Amino acid sequence: xxxxxxxxxxxxxxxxxxxxxxxxxxxxxxxxxxxxxxxxxxxxxxxxxxxxxxxxxxxxxxxxxxxxxxxxxxxxxxxxxxxxxxxxxxxxxxxxxxxxxxxxxxxxxxxxxxxxxxxxxxxxxxxxxxxxxxxxxxxxxxxxxxxxxxxxxxxxxxxxxxxxxxxxxxxxxxxxxxxxxxxxxxxxxxxxxxxxxxxxxxxxxxxxxxxxxxxxxxxxxxxxxxxxxxxxxxxxxxxxxxxxxxxxxxxxxxxxxxxxxxxxxxxxxxxxxxxxxxxxxxxxxxxxxxxxxxxxxxxxxxxxxxxxxxxxxxxxxxxxxxxxxxxxxxxxxxxxxxxxxxxxxxxxxxxxxxxxxxxx
Length: 360
Known about the structure:
The chain has 360 residues and is an alpha+beta fold. It contains 12 helices and 8 strands. The chain has a 6-stranded mixed beta sheet with strand order 1-5-6-4-3-2, with helices on both faces. Strands 7-8 form a two-stranded antiparallel sheet. α5 (147-167) packs antiparallel against α11, α8 (233-249) packs antiparallel against α10 (287-300) and α10 runs antiparallel to α11. The relative contact order is 0.10. The model is unreliable at 1-21 and 196-213 (pLDDT under 50).
């Protein structure tokens, strides 16, 4: 499987097969020029694995053209802990990451290693930022996401996870699913990014320093990861359900009390399930839709990984919800012909949330 060499802005593919010529290896000078020498004005943000800059790569062809990119400067600790500089596994991971192509995954365009052993990863630029910007860091001049957009984002992210779990060979475990790693491009199309830095494929039995490293870095773990550092596809399901809760509630998972503990107190305690809804939605959401998301989240938050649904089921449920466009001016009737969620359904939701696991 070869990477499509659609963009060759500057950069020169390596002649060494071991360096994987299918991905562009940029010169450090090219990235410095693209970011105006990594100017503060180009800084997009600083995360767990380093700083990210916005850049503009100029074409080296006959026709003048440019490409907006995001350039991740991977910090020294991440590289040394996971791979070590110039370790073959690092280049293998970069190469394998460049082969992952899906509408809901950010493309890796290339990389660069500077003279001082600095690693840079070059991605397509996402103009709308991340989901976190719209849920937890919403500026006053931005409108909150409406229900339909939230379901579109949830369904798209699930499709991206499904591709990584079911279509990639070998399967990819993300391990770091959260709103800041779900980027948004035009029309709020979600794209997964920053999954486990740049080493995507982790065997489920892996107990290497890589897994232990991320046990220190992540805060959205499934119980099997907290207890045994066991990272599986079902761990991703658990983490993704936290994103679903954040989408419908607007609350940040890391705040106290924890998002799961807060939701469980309401939903397992028999309080009205609509209490969980984000106040910024201003009541403009379908009760049946909210109910289904909360029920799905509870299924995904079960203590035993075998009790959680597979990503195919999750993606199907969310795709159906995204297809049911909510119109606040229309009468909302569910498939059973009812105007609202009934008492029996509410009891089922309460029972499901009683089995949800959380640290607190």
